[in-house]
Amino acid sequence: MGCDTARVSAPNGGRCTRSSAARVLGGTAFQLVKGDKGDQGDQGEQGIQGEQGIQGIQGEQGPQGDQGIQGIQGIQGIQGIQGIQGDTGPGVAAGGTTGQKLVKATNADYDTEWVDVNELPAGGTTSQALRKDTNTDYDASWQDVHEVPTAGTTAQVLAKNSNTNYDYAWTTIYSLPAGGTTRQSLLKTSNTDFDATWYDIHEVLSGGTTAQVFKKTSNTDYATAWGFVADSEITFTDITTNNASTSNHGFLPKLDNDATHFFDGTGNWDTVKDSDLSTSDITTNNVTSAKHGFTPKSPGDSSYFLNGAATPGWSQLFGGGSASIYIAPAQWAEPTLKVTMVGGAPTAITATLVASETWEDYADAATSGFSSGWGWSGSWVLS
Asked: CA-CA distance, 14 to 72, in Å (whole number)?
């Protein structure tokens, strides 16, 4: 199908496309004409109601309006009809006796009663006052009152003249002098009565703790403080007054410069005697390879000896026998035999032989069957 170049364009390889309102059919171009508007279609069904949206932000409150004009006062109403007369009031309470008074019984309206009133007692003289005689209610009587006397001058006080009741008079009191500064004290300046003045008093300072003392901190006057006594601040003398005794604690007596002495329980320097020593079965201070000390307690058996272990103890050696020994020494002298035995002890030991027979001279080789030299025959034991 061809395209009318005057009405359509064919950009897609010769294929005709719609351009404006022109159509080409069978090589003939024609103009499309818009038809009449069709009838309105039926209304579709109402859709499902959507979810309610989020409430909007509340707006700001508007300004308060102006106050309205006051209305006109209304006409006064007609006076009402007079009411019916009420009941008679309670009036004065009935009863009562001569001399009684009508008083309120409670706080309620019209609640009254007749009661006896304790009035001032009769009698009395001029200047007397009414005083209680006892703690009983209304028990009072007229009595003389000892008033403050007349006269006197400014700043005087009433002072007793004697031990007699009501014997007093106006007296001058010598009050504190003017002046002075904070923490000063009043001191006598002479033996004259009332001759005193304000003066600085260097008192003990506050504070401090248990066992502290009040001491000078320098050579400056009044330079003091609470503190503990240092060893360097203590000075000793040759006075024995406060030395320790059997009844009191105290200082150590002066040393007597004898290294063999010790301070005994009677307060004297003395030597240590054998009778002063006491031993026990405690092994705390026994000898060891690290320190000197006491010998361990004896086992009571002569066949034991004290060994040289790190912690020494008692051990037993077993050995002995008999032998015939011949020795040809380099020189003609009686030799000493020693033997190293192992047994009965934790390590090997060296012991000296003790013979039951003495050394003999075997110089005669023909008799002894030995060559010239020394020989020995007998038993031996370890010692």
From this structure: 97
Euclidean distance between CA atoms 366 and 377, whole angstroms: 18
Inform me whether the pLDDT recorded for 181 exceeds 70: yes
268 and 203 within one domain: yes
The closest alpha carbon to 380, from 299, 320, 330, belongs to 320
pLDDT attached to residue 292: 92
* Size of the chain in residues: 383
Say if residues 376 and 359 touch (Cβ distance below 8 Å). Answer: yes
Q: Which residues of 147-165 are buried (b: 16+ CB within 10 A; e: fewer)?
A: eeeeeeeeeeeeeeeeeee
Q: Is the pLDDT of residue 138 over 60?
A: yes
Which are the contacts of 265, defined by CB distance < 8 A and separation ≥ 6? 246
Q: Which helix (H) or strand (E) holds 304?
A: strand 304-306
CB 374 within 8 A of CB 359: yes
Angle, vertex CA 297, rays to CA 292 and CA 303, nearest 5? 110
**Is the pLDDT reported for residue 139 higher than 70?**
yes
Mean pLDDT of the chain: 74
Q: Of the candidates 232, 253, 278, which is a domain's last residue?
A: 278
Count of domains in the chain?
3
Q: What is the pLDDT of residues 303-353, one digit of tens each?
A: 778 888 888 888 765 444 444 444 444 444 444 444 333 333 333 333 333
Tell me if 108 is assigned to some domain.
Answer: no
Determine the structural domain holding residue 23 and report its residue range.
1-29
Residue 320 zone, left/alpha/beta (φ > 0; ψ -120 to 50; rest): left
